[in-house]
Amino acid sequence: QDWLDVVPVTTRTKQQFDRLRSALETFGWRDALICNGSILLRDGVEDTAWREESIRISETSQSDYKKAYGFAAGLAGKNAVTAVEPFMFYVRTDQPELVFNALSAQAGHAELTVLRDSQKVYCFPRHLNKGRAAERYMLRTGHKTYIAAGDSEFDIPMLQNAAVSLCPERIAHYKPIGRMRVCSGLFSDEICGELEQIRNEGL
Question: What percent of the chain has pLDDT over 70?
Fold first, then answer.
């Protein structure tokens, strides 16, 4: 990895990410974009300027976001909802499809993004996604391009705009601006192999 600056980009909250941070620091990874890219951590400390920019970016979505949060709390109960205000919330549920459909129908317009995994349903202001976070990070650091690896719908905005995107076949339905490499084996192993090939070939 001496030819890369590696930056984790995750939907995890700070509390969740802190469980991983000590392990990641052994690799020398100093920065991380958490909460779907709305928060930048440097050595575990939040960058306040990045937070303020995230608040400005999401300003037009805040009214709809608050309504969606109230709806989710009423639907599943406040104890089932975890929020990192004003950037995201998720609902823990054993019926993710039902909650996803109900929240999507309520949110049903362009100001919010609703996504799900096997146990949680997430809601974000529409401009706070991993793709926008990657673009902001490049501007902040002076990087000209990036390689992205992701295996879920949450990662697609980041994958779309990468110079090279690595993903499994099940989410390879986006249209990238760069080169797409579809990984068919164990994803973590495939990433390592693809990165080694990219290193040898160049971007």
Answer: 99
Beta bridge partners of 164: 147, 179
For 37-53, the pLDDT digits (tens) are: 999 999 999 999 999 99
Distance, first Cα to last Cα, the chain = 15
Round the CA-based radius of gyration of the chain to a whole number and report it.
Answer: 17
Cα-based torsion angle of the residue sequence 190, 191, 196, 198 in order, rounded to the nearest 10 degrees: 110
For residue 4, report the phi and psi dihedrals to the nearest 5 degrees: -125, 145
Whether 46 and 39 have beta carbons less than 8 Å apart is answered as yes
β-pairing, 179-183 vs 164-168, is parallel
Q: Which amino acid is at 18?
A: D
| pLDDT interval class at 106 (50, 70, 90) | confident
Please, are residues 97 and 118 in contact by the beta-carbon 8 Å criterion? Answer: no
Beta-carbon contacts of 85 under 8 Å, excluding residues fewer than 6 positions away, are none
- Measured between alpha carbons, how far is 33 from 146 in angstroms, rounded to an integer? 14
**List of residues 6+ apart from 76 with CB closer than 8 A:** 91, 92, 93, 99
pLDDT, one tens digit per residue, over 123-164 is 999 999 999 999 999 999 999 999 999 999 999 999 999 999
